[in-house]
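Sharing a chain and its predicted structure for anyone who wants a worked example. Both blocks are below, sequence first, tokens second.
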Amino acid sequence: MTTTGKSSSATAGAPSSGSGQQRSRRKTREEVLADFENDLVRFEAMSIKIAGFDEPLEFSRTMDPMPQRLHFILPEYSIYNLTVRYKVKQRPLRVLTYHQTVKRKGIPVDDRNLHMIEDAWVNKHGDDGDYHEVTFPPSGVPGGSFLRGDYKAKSVVKEEGRLIWSYKWTLEVVKKGVKPSIGGFDDELEEGEGEGEDEDVVMSK
């Protein structure tokens, strides 16, 4: 299920002016990356491989420029595999599971509960070749003019059923024939966002 340095498959801005307007700002690289790390786990990359396209879309810690948040843009009717690369930090983790929900205007359109690994050892700090990686089974996106647009997604990782990390992101469905890409470069952080926001990131010991 998990290897060292190799893939494995799992059966897996300026403030606005004017009275009454909410100010916004852009996140720094450090703020963006902080959302993908806590006391237990550090996410190195999340990538989507789309059927019919050679190159995957990869969101990684070394991206330049760095998007404001995770945002994948996929053509309608796409079939894709999600791969997650991560490092375990303080202690071994047991029975890791991945949960993903995707909603359109508040209505769930996808809900996945997937196994990651039974036992995840602690990875060596500073060793780029020592990591865990899991590829999940295929999933798909809908199509049609009424179903194109932004979908609100949320990824959750649990250890033995206990929440240890979560993150909200965007899955954007576009017209067939449009090349897949990564978005989120123009997003801005509303004042107060990220401060106690609804489980956007969970820090767990």
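Comments welcome. Residues 24-190 form a domain with the Coagulation Factor XIII; Chain A, domain 1 fold (CATH 2.70.50.30).
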